[in-house]
Every structure is written in structure tokens, then in C-alpha cells.
Amino acid sequence: MQQPALTGASALVTGSSRGIGAAIARALAAQGANVCLNCSSEAGLQALAASAAELEREFGVKTCAVVGNVADPEDAKRLANETIDAFGTLDVLVNNAGITRDGLAVRMSDDDFAAVIDVNLKGTFNCCRAAVKPMMKQRRGRIVNLSSVVGIAGNAGQANYAASKAGVIGLTKSLAKELGSRNITVNAIAPGFIETDMTDALSDKQRDGLESAIALRRLGQAEEVAALAAFLASDSAAYITGQVIAIDGGMSL
Ligand code: NDP
What CATH number is given to the structural domain containing 70? Predict the structure, then answer.
């Protein structure tokens, strides 16, 4: 029988206490990866511990759970180090942690602009920088960054979020060029609207409007994004780097 695609690999998934990150952690574990789970709030720790225990039981993999804020470079280093301490290597980094602070640009506070850039863009950079050193030594690595279709097309009321996600695309392409010769691939996923806590806030009217703009006439599921992340983390994606792959039900067509 063939082994699952990521048997024995070691993965760090930021922002994995719920939503897309939790689904990605599960998809990687289902493929045999040992997974380090993360979130920034002590309140999320219980969810992390519960998911970790479930993944160990269901897939027989090893896990660890680390509370840390990706926007803090020291926490990002600690996340990478604790993954290596737990599993010996760091083969896959999924930069999924993200926040929104929506509002029209004219009324947006400095804090709301800065917070979103700090977590979504600088947090992604912090974790990439922390993971790249061990990956360069290993001469292999997979980095998957969560961008958004909003980072490609823009969105009224999300100037901070769209700028952060457009930044993630530039970061992804630059790192792909810097790290390709070390056998490290760096790709971005650009989801459309996915059913999670982040999109729970949509009103019925907003949801109806959105669905009519999506070719497949529905929001996406976290598991659908997770399957793409697991593919990009696998050997089957070894020749894909610097790409931004939209997963949006045809919304951006
Ligand atoms: P959720 O809000 O459901 O989950 C976000 C996760 O990130 C939580 O685990 C949260 O835990 C964690 N997190 C937030 N801030 C930090 C931080 N500073 N450091 C570490 N962890 C943090 O989000 P989604 O699952 O909806 O989104 C996941 C990613 O996908 C995000 O990057 C988002 O921008 C992107 N995306 C989502 C779309 C959607 O429609 N849902 C569409 C396009 C992109 P805690 O609060 O405890 O820190």
C-alpha cells in the first residue's frame, strides 16, 4: 500500500485554532505530517489542545500546540524552534494566521490599518524568515501563504486587508526567486469567500449578493482550501513555485 504523501514530514500551521487553519492542519495530518498548531489568544489554547489530541488519535501523527503572535518576530522564531524541537525538522510552513478590521479608508484608524498589516503581512514575513534558515540547511522546504482574491482585485471597505494580502503576493514571488535554488517552494493561495468565523459577519443580503457573483453560486468550504494547501505541500507540487492559486468558485472570472 502507498504511504500518505506527507508521511514523516513536519509542518507548522499558523492560526490553526479554527477555520481554514484548523482544516489545513487536519489535511496535512491526514497525509501523515506531524503538525504544530498555533493561535495568538490564550482562549484559543483549549481548541488547539483538543484538535491536537484528535489529530494524534485519528491519524497517528505527532502534534504540538504553541500560543504565539505571528506579528512578533520573537514569537515567530519560537514557533519555528518549537516545531523543530518537537519533530526534528521544519518541512512545511503554512502562513494562515490573519485578521480583518474592515472600514472605509477615509474613516480607518491608524491602529486598524497597522494591526492588519502587522498580522497578515509582517506576520507572514516573520514566520518565513524564521523557517527559511532551517529549510535552507535541510535543502528542502514548502511554504504556503494565505493571500486572498481581495489582494488581487481590491475591495471597498478593506483597504488595509487588501493591501496586506497584495503584499503577501509580492512577498511570495520574491521569496520563490530567492529560495528556488535551495529547493524551497513558496506559493500563495487566494481564496474567495469561505465559510468561517471571518465570513460569519456577512448579512443575508451581502451573502445573497456574493453568491450571485460566484460562478458556482456558493461560498467555499475550509476543507476545499485545505486540500489545495496539502497538495502544494506535497512532492506532487515540487515544480510549482511563485504562483498565486485562486480558489474562489469562479468569482474572479
Ligand atoms: P478565522 O478568523 O476563522 O481564524 C483565524 C485564525 O488565525 C485563528 O486561529 C486565530 O486565532 C489566528 N490568529 C489571528 N491573529 C493571529 C496572530 N497574530 N498570531 C497567530 N494566530 C493568529 O480566519 P479564516 O479561517 O477565515 O482565515 C484564515 C486565513 O485565510 C486568513 O489569513 C484569511 O485572511 C484568509 N482568507 C480567508 C477567507 C475567508 O473567506 N474566510 C478568504 C480569503 C482569505 P486567535 O484569534 O486565537 O489568535
Answer: 3.40.50.720
